Amino acid sequence: MLALTAIAPISVSLAYIYAAKDHNYQLAAIAACSCLLLGALALWIIERAQAGLERLPVTIKKAKSADKEVIGFFVAYALPLVFRGQATPEPGAWLLAAGMLLFVLWSTHSLQVNPVLGIFGYHFYEVETADGITYLLISKRRINSALAIKNVVQLSEYGILEAPTK
User: Fold this and answer.
1) Is 121 helix (H, G, I), strand (E, B) or coil?
2) What is the CA 97 to chain-centroid distance, rounded?
3) In this predicted structure, what is the pLDDT of residue 80?
4) Contacts of 156 (CB under 8 A, 6+ apart)
């Protein structure tokens, strides 16, 4: 579900197309509201994970920023605006695409950079632990030293979230 929230800003593009091109303000409002709901869901998932999942000690050997990967998402957000030819964006097609995305993410056990969380101040790092395992780390703070991360919660097989200090 966290990965699905990453596509929330596409709803802004859809809302624009529905309103400006099709003059369908009802679908535009639904698209805009879905963006807000998915954004709220992303924050809720992170807050629940930090509060409810088991804290695990971690020793990070290497860390590098993965924030730059957000650029690819923003290109994808703009595509509906660029390719807004004759066809009207069908809600069913978008639901099917979201379902396919969920299946791919679930079956590959991947966690992607989430630009929605980036808007709320989260940063993404590709980290390698002392055990040699590479994870995508989500943290609310900028990391200057890999040793600064002491505890995490595990979001997925290869996704971890910095656990706040108690």
Assistant:
1) coil
2) 16
3) 58
4) 109, 110, 111
Task: Quick: pLDDT tens for 51-65.
Answer: 999 999 999 998 888
Positive or negative CA dihedral for 137, 142, 116, 68? negative
**pTM for the whole structure:** 0.74
Among 81, 89, 4, which residue's Cα sits nearest to residue 42?
A: 4
DSSP class of residue 164 equals P
**31: Cα within 13 Å, side-chain hemisphere:** 23
Strand ranges (DSSP E) for the chain? 56-57, 60-65, 123-129, 134-139, 151-156, 159-162
Nearest alpha-carbon partner for 110 in 65, 73, 156, 70: 156
Quick one: average pLDDT of 53-81? 74
